Write a sequence for this structure.
């Protein structure tokens, strides 16, 4: 995959990449161990503590129902991360397979897949996700499918491009010459040689998926309203921006930090996989 | 060149056809149909069947699609059950609002994005590059709705220099219109602007390393001349590609921004119609957005031909 | 001594990367005088190009593509001003393009694709000669005519992609000559071109500089080119100049072990057939540490005991104007003849592969909705060949002549339009997909670019062993590993390299991997498609010797495809010459190289320079005119007639038949055949 040591080298040489990785790790840990980390039940209402400011008891204060914001942020991390990872897996696998088929076989399959991709690319991703989400009905699983499917065309385009350029490499011809079947050529030679930019894109898209989920939740069309999610929290706090702006600011900041971390980490990964840049690190 | 344009035009029409199909398919999948909604409690099997037949809902899916498509060709996008008006009528009004806002955002993000990207690339590794790249990274990561709220808190609530939200027709009060649109336009533009900066920067850097730039240097040209005459025109091709995609991104941004700032455009209409289960309107919105994006991409494809002489002649050697 | 144009003193270029430094050029000094043609020769990575670009400060610094720094110490003095002095930046820009011009290796990528070529040339004229737009245009057209671009007026407004590689290089020359420079640097400027075009361009370049008294510096790896054109030669190795002197002295009395090694490793067109190539073993140092002592010592076959301990090897005078850094005074310069191992082949008269009437057309399709076939690319036209078991058939031709299509047809990668390919009686064109795959155990291919043809994500062991897995040739892991190790040893690779990836190997090692992979399924027939053209000359010899050894040991049959006639001549028993999809002449190597009949064969032979100035002086170069026509618009009749110096009216009418003019010698040119017959008649009477 990549040369041993280059991973560490990039981390050490770029503090931003290291920082973004730490940030991602922090949010992933929060997501995985949410039940252990949450100081309060994120669903428990405590009306006397309505809109309580940050204190030692409630580090980030309470929302309009008196629920502990820190607990809800941690639970929100779980919601975001789960949706992001699952949707990227759905979208990535479907996109890579379709792109590989389109690029390798060409012809009718290629035309069909690519025109479909063009059509999906003509509709804004959030609108597409919204449409699919509405069509499937509102649930967390359907939201993951919606975000996943809406990201498919980008993967198809990229994988197809990669496959076409890899297919014309001499080593693929060489594999044909020694007698490899199509399936072996695709699996052993084309896939491993075209996948690295897709891994980079998938990393960056993790941020994109979080953004999409948060945007939909903000609009009230994301996860079901009873589940704590950052987008919903920003939206709920909107009515109180004059009195309690932190209600919106804190969850929004979390979204930005995670997305930023995935973007920077993805860029770092790209440089690491690019042999032209690698030498200089 | 003509052949190239005709080919692209044909492709765009084909894609448009698929877009109509997708938007039809999505809405078709929604469980429950208009009959349940229209009849409500008065539903009896007979009444429902009669209404179904009158709405063509008893026909197979493909037939219904073509009936709907035929309507589209006549400009009939259906009737909104919520507004009780033709979808085409509703969309035309809303599209104008969205279009003005989106166009302003497109101009700002492209002009500022390309300039900053070039500055960044030319000063690679320097202070300005680091500063611009840092903000570009933030810009692509910041959620539009959150940025909108920050703006409202800062400029409307704290500084009180701009109105919080709302929309006034420019014909009614142009100054108010402008003041109200400042925040929505900027918030919409930020994401597109940041990706333009990044794309321009990498396109310029990629071009600078090409052999023909070395040739230009070898000729004894000044760096400024090399940048203007040799680098920028070649770097324009990847920039144009992104420009085509920006329209799609901006539409996505508009959907959110219109909802934050209560701008009565297509984005707000779309979200409201989803809540109202006003399927024909949702369909119409998706379709119109698709059409605009396809036209934008077509224009980009055609302008490739002007920038790059190699694209002007299409060679199809199988 | 008269005045110097450029005087470079103690030039050093280092690429300072974050983790390591590449010492690319290490203190070289050279000078060049008006009207002089100087050759700088060396293998890839010896610093010959970097040093030229450094004098004009064209090495990226501050880094554009390569991260790091190029640091110059020393002086490049022009008109008494130092070009490397940072404060002379403005002056340097006026020198670049104006006084010193450079022509690069890749003509296609060196021109701006979105700018009209005429404007690219006139740009420099307007800048340096301060001419107005219309005057600059006129001068540009004049220059384009001078470099023999047809229809120069109309072509002024064309874009680079509308020109062939050779034409682009002419444009680059026109651009370089545009401001009457004092010095022209041609950096590998004909390497990417076909031999006949290369000869045309170099002849033209020489004529132009001779006429204008411009100094010309040719940077190349090709010893033949410097022998043919240079007055003075600098030999570079590992970032330093190891020997320099007058061209005739360098070739008659090479005084550095490396120069001798180079000369002994290249096959020559005037060789004895039984001459043995003597490769330089090993590969050049990677220059990541500052070279101390003699950089060549690790590969030197003639080193002395004191070579190891000496810290410095300054250039010392060995003769009048001839300097070398080698301290061995008794260098062995003799060429070696083949020993018993390479005794003459005894070929059985058994046909292994027979191609008859093979044609391949690629349709050109046009149209928006429904693609119509509007023309055909005739890649192969009625090609017939017979290859006997155990022989090497050399196939020569320039790019686009169809030699690769022929190779791919044999391997079943391209399906021919008509004709048959009989391999031991089986028609390969009629096999289905599965049978073709099975047939690939028998027939294998060796690629031109050893790096591109190895999967970068696989280990060397995995690459070599893949055919064993694909064809299920071994049972069990131990047998597999044993066989892979055998293959490593067979091609002279260390089996401990098994787990390395391709990019960790040198070019020669990679080509060995490619050969081992081809041999894994124990084929009897190998198609070698330009197997050595991407390699440095010293490594070329290693691979050629390996191929010859393997042929004897394993009884292999080769179809050896190449554009370099001296290489083909060295290795082949029979040679076929192709031009635009047809075989124009075929015969045994001796007849074909010594008594060629077809005008194209003669042009090819005379275009190949021989690394010996003495021989070159007496040779008469039969240059052909014009470019190779596009295969989609073949000239009528004999495809060669538009470029042929002997063309007659009838040549455009009918396609000449390939006729046997004496046993085993086939020629497709009635004109030359008649002339030959007349000659023999007059000779005998």
């Amino acid at each position: 995959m990549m040369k041993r040591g280059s991973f560490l080298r990039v981390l050490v040489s770029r503090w931003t990449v290291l920082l973004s990785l730490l940030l991602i790790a922090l949010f992933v840990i929060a997501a995985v161990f949410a039940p252990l980390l949450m100081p309060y039940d994120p669903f428990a209402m405590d009306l006397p503590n309505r809109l309580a400011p940050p204190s030692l008891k409630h580090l980030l204060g309470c929302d309009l129902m008196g629920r502990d914001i820190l607990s809800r942020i941690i639970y929100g991390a779980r919601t975001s991360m789960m949706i992001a990872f699952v949707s990227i897996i759905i979208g990535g696998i479907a996109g890579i397979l379709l792109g590989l088929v389109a690029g390798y076989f060409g012809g009718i399959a290629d035309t069909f897949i690519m025109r479909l991709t063009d059509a999906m690319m003509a509709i804004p991703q959030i609108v597409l996700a919204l449409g699919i989400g509405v069509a499937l009905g509102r649930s967390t699983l359907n939201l993951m499918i919606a975000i996943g499917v809406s990201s498919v065309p980008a993967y198809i385009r990229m994988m197809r491009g990669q496959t076409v350029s890899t297919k014309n490499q001499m080593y693929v011809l060489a594999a044909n010459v020694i007698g490899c079947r199509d399936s072996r050529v695709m699996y052993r030679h084309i896939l491993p040689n075209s996948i690295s930019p897709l891994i980079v894109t998938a990393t960056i898209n993790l941020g994109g998926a979080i953004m999409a989920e948060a945007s939909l939740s903000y609009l009230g069309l994301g996860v079901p309203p009873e589940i704590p999610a950052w987008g919903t929290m920003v939206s709920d706090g909107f009515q109180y921006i004059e009195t309690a702006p932190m209600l919106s600011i804190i969850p929004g900041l979390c979204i930005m930090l995670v997305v930023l971390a995935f973007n920077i980490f993805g860029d770092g990964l790209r440089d690491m996989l690019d042999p032209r840049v690698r030498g200089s690190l | 060149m003509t052949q190239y344009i005709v080919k692209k035009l044909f492709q765009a029409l084909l894609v448009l056809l698929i877009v109509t199909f997708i938007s039809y398919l999505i809405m078709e999948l929604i469980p429950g149909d208009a009959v349940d909604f229209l009849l409500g409690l008065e539903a009896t099997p007979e009444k429902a069947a009669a209404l179904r037949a009158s709405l063509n809902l008893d026909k197979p899916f493909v037939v219904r699609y073509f009936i709907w498509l035929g309507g589209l060709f006549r400009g009939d996008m259906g009737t909104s059950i919520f507004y009780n008006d033709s979808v085409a009528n509703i969309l035309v009004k809303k599209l104008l609002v969205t279009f003005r806002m989106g166009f302003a955002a497109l101009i700002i993000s492209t002009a500022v994005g390309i300039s900053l990207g070039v500055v960044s690339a030319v000063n690679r590794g320097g202070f300005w590059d680091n500063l611009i790249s840092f903000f570009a990274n933030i810009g692509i990561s910041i959620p539009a709705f959150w940025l909108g709220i920050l703006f409202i808190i800062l400029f409307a609530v704290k500084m009180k220099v701009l109105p919080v939200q709302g929309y006034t027709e420019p014909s009614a009060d142009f100054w108010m219109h402008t003041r109200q649109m400042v925040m929505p336009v900027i918030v919409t533009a930020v994401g597109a602007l940041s990706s333009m900066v990044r794309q321009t920067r990498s396109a310029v850097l990629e071009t600078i390393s090409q052999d023909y730039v070395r040739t230009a240097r070898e000729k004894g040209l000044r760096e400024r001349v090399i940048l203007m005459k040799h680098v920028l025109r070649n770097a324009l091709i990847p920039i144009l590609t992104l420009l085509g995609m920006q329209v799609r991104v901006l539409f996505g941004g508009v959907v959110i921004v219109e909802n934050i700032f209560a701008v009565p455009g297509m984005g707000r209409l779309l979200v409201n119609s989803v809540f109202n289960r006003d399927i024909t309107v949702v369909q119409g919105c998706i379709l119109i957005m698709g059409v605009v994006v396809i036209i934008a991409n077509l224009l980009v494809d055609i302008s490739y031909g002007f920038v790059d002489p190699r694209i002007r002649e299409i060679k199809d050697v199988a | 001594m008269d005045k110097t144009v450029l005087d470079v003193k103690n030039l050093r270029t280092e690429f300072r990367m974050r983790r390591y430094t590449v010492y690319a050029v290490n203190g070289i000094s050279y000078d060049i005088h008006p009207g002089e043609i100087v050759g700088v020769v060396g293998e890839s990575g010896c610093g010959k190009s970097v040093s030229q670009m450094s004098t004009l400060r064209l090495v990226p610094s501050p880094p554009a593509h390569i991260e790091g720094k190029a640091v110059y110490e020393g002086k490049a003095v022009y008109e008494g001003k130092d070009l490397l002095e940072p404060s002379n930046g403005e002056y340097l820009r006026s020198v670049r393009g104006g006084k010193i011009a450079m022509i690069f290796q890749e003509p296609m990528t060196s021109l701006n694709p979105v700018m009209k070529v005429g404007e690219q040339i006139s740009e420099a004229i307007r800048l340096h000669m301060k001419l107005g737009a219309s005057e600059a245009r006129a001068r540009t057209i004049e220059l384009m005519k001078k470099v023999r671009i047809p229809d120069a007026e109309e072509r002024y407004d064309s874009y680079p992609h509308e020109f062939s590689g050779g034409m682009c290089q002419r444009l680059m020359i026109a651009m370089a000559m545009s401001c009457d420079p004092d010095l022209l640097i041609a950096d590998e400027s004909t390497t990417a071109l076909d031999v006949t075009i290369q000869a045309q361009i170099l002849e033209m370049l020489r004529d132009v500089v001779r006429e204008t008294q411009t100094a010309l510096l040719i940077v190349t790896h090709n010893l033949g080119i410097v022998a043919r054109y240079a007055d003075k030669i600098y030999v570079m190795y590992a970032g330093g100049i190891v020997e320099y002197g007058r061209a005739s002295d360098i070739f008659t009395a090479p005084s550095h072990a490396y120069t001798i090694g180079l000369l002994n490793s290249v096959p020559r067109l005037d060789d004895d057939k039984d001459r043995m190539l003597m490769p330089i073993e090993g590969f050049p140092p990677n220059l990541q540490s500052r070279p101390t002592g003699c950089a060549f010592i690790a590969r030197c076959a003639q080193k002395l005991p004191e070579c190891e301990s000496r810290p410095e090897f300054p250039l010392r005078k060995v003769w009048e104007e001839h300097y070398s850094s080698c301290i061995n005074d008794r260098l062995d310069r003799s060429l070696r003849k083949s020993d018993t191992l390479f005794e003459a082949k005894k070929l059985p008269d058994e046909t292994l592969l027979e191609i008859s009437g093979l044609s391949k057309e690629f349709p050109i399709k046009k149209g928006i909705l429904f693609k119509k076939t509007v023309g055909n690319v005739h890649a192969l036209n009625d090609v017939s060949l017979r290859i006997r078991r155990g022989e090497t058939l050399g196939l020569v031709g320039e790019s686009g002549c169809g030699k690769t299509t022929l190779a791919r047809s044999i391997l079943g990668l391209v399906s021919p339009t008509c004709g048959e390919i009989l391999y031991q009686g089986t028609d390969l064109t009629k096999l289905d997909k599965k049978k073709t795959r099975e047939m690939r155990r028998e027939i294998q291919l060796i690629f031109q670019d050893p790096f591109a043809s190895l999967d970068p994500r696989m280990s060397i062991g995995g690459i070599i062993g893949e055919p064993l897995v694909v064809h299920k040739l071994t049972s069990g892991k131990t047998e597999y590993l044993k066989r892979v190790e055998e293959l490593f040893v067979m091609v002279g690779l260390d089996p401990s390299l098994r787990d390395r990836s391709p990019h960790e190997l040198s070019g020669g090692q990679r080509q060995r991997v490619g050969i081992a992979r081809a041999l894994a399924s124990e084929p009897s027939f190998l198609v070698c498609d330009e197997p050595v053209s991407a390699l440095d000359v010293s490594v070329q010899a290693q691979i050629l010797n390996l191929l010859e050894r393997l042929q004897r040991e394993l009884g292999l049959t080769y179809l050896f495809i190449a554009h370099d006639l001296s290489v083909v001549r060295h290795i082949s028993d029979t040679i076929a010459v192709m031009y635009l999809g047809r075989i124009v002449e075929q015969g045994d190597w001796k007849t074909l190289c010594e008594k060629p009949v077809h005008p194209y064969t003669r042009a090819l032979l005379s275009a190949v320079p021989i690394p010996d100035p003495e021989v070159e002086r007496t040779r008469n170069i039969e240059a052909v005119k014009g470019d190779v026509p596009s295969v989609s618009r073949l000239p009528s009749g004999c495809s060669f007639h538009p470029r042929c110096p002997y063309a007659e009216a009838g040549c455009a009418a009918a396609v000449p038949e390939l006729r046997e003019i004496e046993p085993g010698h086939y020629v497709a040119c009635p004109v030359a055949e008649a002339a030959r017959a007349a000659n023999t008649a007059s000779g005998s009477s």
Q: What stands out?
A: Residues 83-281 of chain A form a domain with the MetI-like fold fold (CATH 1.10.3720.10).
